Amino acid sequence: MKKVLATTVLSIIAINLMIEPTMAILEKKDTKSTQTTILDTINFDWWQKQNDKNLENYITLAINNNYDIKTTALKIQQAQLNVIATRAGQLPSLSVGASPFLGKMTGETKTMGSFALPIIASWELDLFGKNWDKTKSSKKLLKSVESQAQASNIAIISMVGTVYYNIVKLDKLIEIQKDLVKDRENIYNLMKLSNEEGIVSTSDLIQAEKSFVMAQNELIDYEKSRNSALNALAVLIGDSPENKKEYERISADKLSLNFDIPSEISSDIITSRPDYKALEHQLESAGLDVRVAKKEFLPSINILGTLAFVATSASSSMSFKNALGLLGGIANLPLYTGGAKTANLKLFKNKYEQLLAQYQKTNLVAIQEVNDSLYNFKSNEEKLRNNKKALEIQEKDYKYSELKYNEGVISKLDLLQQKEALLYMEKLFASSKTDCYIDKISLYKTTGAKI
């Protein structure tokens, strides 16, 4: 029995010696595939150039706490495990078992027993490279999943930036709208007094009251939109919306007007987009799957080996004298499978053609998205310059109206109406400024974080 235990232990050690180096190689590759961090894939340096520590903080929180980002990381791990599982098909398999047996022969009064420890080895010779193509296909799918994760992360971080700047815009609009409500209230009160004295018609008074009420409603809409945006930001950074009152952000007045955007962007930039790369890897994987399906028509060759130590009684020793050994092989070529292999080949060809069409469409859509984002930015940048000029003109006009009011040339009502026009231009300028930042993020997203 000692010989049996020694033989079994040696067999298990041999199996481990064959398996552990293979697993070490695969684990090393897994580590290598995860070396690229999310900060690198989203081009965090680009966000730091915006000179807004609050925005950087929200992006960092999203990277660490966003559940969609965590899900994409798990999908990468799943794809890595799939590579390991597929790679196992290229390696030999070893197993050890225990087989007790008790029986009685005819004409005998005693029972006979035996105990066997079989060690079975099997290996499919990859003569035509079928299993190797399966492994390459799984590796391409891993790269595709990694690229999809990058695209998803860029989209999520872009959403964080977009929501953030919308909140900044709404902060400024609410600030201006509160002044506008006060201004229209003062206008309404003055017109009410003028109406009582018969200077202003009732129709003008009703119109002033209507403008006052509409300004209040517009303020409510702004506050409601900001509340929704704060809730959205909380979800994106994996925080409770109850903490939204503590969220700090930059003032719209401190936003720079230097956007540092190139005037032209080459269409070649789409080849670096992660969603484009993901489809490229899927297409390559589908092509390998077609090759595998074709090779399924070829024969498969398997090598089988069995070594069993048999003891016919508890007192007998399980030595090589009592060992049974078998080494052989089998070549198998299915002649009829009911059309399954043919259908499988057509299925993979169909999948490849679908991916090819999707790949070509993605190419066109990506170019369109980049062109649209760049055009929208340029248009809003031009609008911003025009609104800035209009605001400067309105500020001068208001100061001139203040001088005329102080000299008694115009009434307070006229001055308030000029202030209302000034507040309206301030709203347009604030909106167009933050819109440029949002368009800048859109361009960042459509170029795959490469601008």
Structure, described:
This protein has 451 residues and is of the alpha+beta class. It contains ten helices and five strands; from the N terminus they run αααααβββαααββαα. Strands 1, 2, 3, 4 and 5 form a five-stranded antiparallel β-sheet that branches. Helix 4 packs across helix 6 (130-196), helix 6 packs antiparallel against helix 10 (412-446) and helix 9 packs antiparallel against helix 10. The chain is elongated. Mean pLDDT is 87; it is low at 1-36.
List the helices and strands and how they pair.
Layout: H1 2-33, H2 38-41, H3 44-48, H4 53-65, H5 67-87, E1 93-96, E2 99-104, E3 111-125, H6 130-196, H7 202-236, H8 274-295, E4 300-311, E5 323-332, H9 340-406, H10 412-446
Antiparallel strand pairs: 1-3, 2-3, 3-4, 4-5
